[in-house]
Amino acid sequence: MMTTDENVWTKGLTLVTDLIHDVTNTYAVDTNRIYGTGQSQGGMANIAISDKYPDLFAAQFLVACQWNTQEMEALKDKNLWILVSAGDTKADPGMNEAGSRGEKLGTKVATAPLWNSHADFKSMADLVRQIEKQDAAINYTVFQNGNHMYTWTFAYNIPGIRDWLYLQTLDNTPVSFNESGLSQGEKHEIAGEVLSQGLRFYNGKTEEDAAKALAYFKEADKLGHMKAARYIGLLYQEGRGVPKNDKETASWFKKGAEDGDITSQYLLGKCYEDGTGVERDYALALKWYRKSAERGDIIAAPGMTGESLLLEKGLGGERNPPSPASSSRKPQPWAMRPPKRPSPLSDPHFLTHNFTYFFTQSLQNSFILKTYPFIFCSTWKGAYNVQTPVSDPHRHRAAACRALHRKAAHSGC
Length: 413
Fold this sequence. Notes:
Elements: H1 11-26, E1 35-39, H2 41-52, E2 59-63, E3 80-85, H3 91-104, E4 109-110, H4 121-132, E5 138-143, H5 148-155, H6 159-166, H7 184-202, H8 207-222, H9 228-238, H10 246-259, H11 262-274, H12 282-293, H13 301-312, H14 324-328, H15 333-336, H16 348-360, H17 371-384, H18 395-411
Parallel strand pairs: 1-2, 2-3, 3-5, 4-5
Helix pairs in contact: 7-8, 8-9, 9-10, 10-11, 11-12, 11-13, 12-13, 13-16, 16-18, 17-18
């Protein structure tokens, strides 16, 4: 018997562990990438071995199993994906308690509503991504219904969990891939997983986390992920994991922009506007802002904001300098007045861009994209009811917002 429900070390566990060590010492095994997985008693054996040898496994996939929850506290910082069924009378409550103990010790545990084990390939891939986006070391998922043996009937047919497992390393450095022989689809899929790993460390708090994030982003960039260059640029901009370097910042934003990343296009436009890492060039700033704004959705909002602000300042647009003859004349009083501003309601371009400006001007330098949906959703209705004094210089924008709201409501948005 390998293990028992009494959660004790056995001769069988000693035999298996000795075998693993003998194989790794005899053959060319990458000890930075040893993975463990098992179902039921096999999962229990995994936990027991990892408890005793915490530096053995880079990651583990634990299926329909449980162990002494106090002993499992030793795994709180390990890369684990735990999968059980809600109808498993031992594994489900056991792993629930283990997860709760981990959270009390400060470990982030990714969870989700009960999974449908019969979900199609695409839906299952989406479920896996929802867990990965939580950027946790321990992922805990539960199949709806099902019993003990039911779990592993489906568990090992989920490609996303397998891919997650193979991307983990003992020292949390990125896996380096040999691109030869990989199809574009395979490269794209792997690049996405590598980027997700990088984001996990990017959201960390230490310099070590930032350095690991940089390594993952560079690997994702090598595999062709268009967003990777943006995050590399942000690390150089923030001086996290690397010395702050404006030229490197602009260079990586340019690569991301040319690769088609909308956010990189906005950030590159900001570099040209501010002269950060490049020579200040308002025309190029306007070009990249407009490129970023082309899609016209929430991701394009910063680009639309940047374009609006630049044009409002009178920068970046085409100029018609006065001829020498006309510039020598004394200007007439009427020429000193600013031209009459057309009604904002007659210009859809003005509506779109100034609506964006109205709500995002206070965020133009923060660049936290995930805040935009909250701001739009929480203030959209309020924009309709904005009351502005006649003397308010932004009254046209408020009117534009109200008109845009009416238009959106009419279209069913």
